[in-house]
Amino acid sequence: TDAWLTRRNGTLCAEAVPLSAVAQAVGTPFYAYSAAALRANYAALAAAVAPHRVTVCFAVKASSNRNVLAEFAALGCGMDIVSGGEMTRALAAGTPPSRIIFSGVGKTRGEIRAALRVGLHQINVESAAELEVVAAAARELGLRAPVALRVNPDVDALTHAKITTARKDSKFGIAAAEVPALYAEAAARPELEMVGLAVHIGSQILDLAPFRQAWAAMAGLVRVLRAAGLPVARLDLGGGLGIGDDSHPGPDLAEYARIIGETVGGLDLALNVEPGRWLCGRAGVLVSEVLYLKPGEGADFAIIDAAMNDLMRPALYEARHPVMPLHPPRDGAARAYRLVGPICESSDDFGSYPGLGPLAAGDLLAFRHAGAYGAAMSSTYNSRDLIPEVLVDGAQFRLIRARAGIDAALRLEEPGPWSHAG
Ligand code: LLP
User: Which segments constitute the Orn/DAP/Arg decarboxylase 2 N-terminal domain (predicted)?
Assistant: First the structure.
């Protein structure tokens, strides 16, 4: 929820902490997350889906800071990972291996072996070729690999083209028509324990109809496999639940849960969902300072100290993050500002915001809904440092990621000895 962001005496607070106090302590730009909002989001989703035997696994890619993961892990939340790095983070945050699912279209041999050794709950396999590698690794290690096949159900998630994943031309999953033969073949191998199926159709999904379509297709596939005498115990329903903004209320959780019940509820399956954005997106803000104002065509530019390397979503997906100034509303004509960063690219542009001003240099602005795919996707382009992350809890806050500093970056670039080859 957004309820953790309130105005007290005019100034914008995260829970009980004025964001300006955080800015003073850590400098801008920075990310701030609300522990209460993370916990409330998990509690609401887990409660909504609980009647259908659904467990929640947080998609670590959305916000991979170990302290954020620890908040979820402490509540019993599982994790959906896509790399060995994410596995290490999930474990470091206290998630038991039995609650970790390994997704992803390009797992390496090393990552698969590590996952099997650790004893993860499930590996979602996305191709026949990957299945061979999982089988070989399991044989070598003398283990049985718990495998689900990720299905491409060929549905359009009706979201931004760059975050849709289940059209038939997508790189993700195995075409539904190929699944029965591959599943049967895999089930005959002693080193593979075929536990079920998985699906994930895309991200930031606001219209729930594509979920119904995809899950109904999965129910059909489960019936086909079972009719062939194959065991199907689990179904991973994927992530993708979107969050609303000022123009859209966002999907209704009760409706989401009802669709689960109606499509796959009666099949005696252990179900799970893998939301990332829904659990953490609204629980974070990116706070940035206005550096300069500059008159422009149509709208004035406000050049801010956050840039596309800190929050990539506007440049990459034309995403818009609602903005709130930290200062109280001011007298004077509301003006439109185009918020742009310091990076030497035209796409370093957060968009036009009508009714924001009047602004002045030194003002602090909070980009909302920055808790998902914000820090997690950031880079050091233009040799900008990764920015601090702060966790707020009640009236307290603490740094959960410090700045690395340019010196640390330069140290990694100390040249190694020449190796002679050829
Ligand atoms: N499960 C799988 C297999 C996924 O690939 C993803 C996201 C999720 C779960 C979680 O999806 P969510 O519930 O967060 O929508 N960077 C983009 C979003 C990319 C999502 C990639 N996969 C953005 O900033 O909008």
Answer: 40-279
Q: What residue spans of 288-403 are helical by DSSP H?
A: 313-317
59 CA from centroid of ligand 1 (Å): 7
Closest listed residue to residue 191, CA positions, set 141, 239, 234: 141
Query: In terms of pTM, does the model score above 0.95?
Result: yes
Q: Which residues contact 188 (CB under 8 A, 6 or more apart)?
A: none
Residues 6+ apart with CB under 8 A from 415: none
What is the domain range of residue 406? Answer: 5-33+281-411
Walking along the chain (422 residues) 10 residues at a time, the average pLDDT comes out as 91 98 98 98 98 97 98 98 98 98 97 98 98 98 98 86 77 94 98 98 96 97 98 98 91 97 97 98 98 90 98 96 94 89 97 91 98 98 97 98 95 96 88
Please tell me whether 96 is known to bind a ligand.
no
Q: How far is CA 214 from CA 102, 155, 208, 221, in A?
A: 21, 6, 10, 11
Answer whether residue 22 is part of any domain: yes
Alpha-carbon distance of 358 to 50, in angstroms, equals 47
Interface ipTM above 0.90: yes
On whether 373 is known to bind a ligand per the annotation, the reply is yes
Closest residue CA from atom 9 of ligand 1: 239
CATH of the domain at 376: 2.40.37.10
Asked whether residue 173 falls in the same domain as residue 26, the answer is no
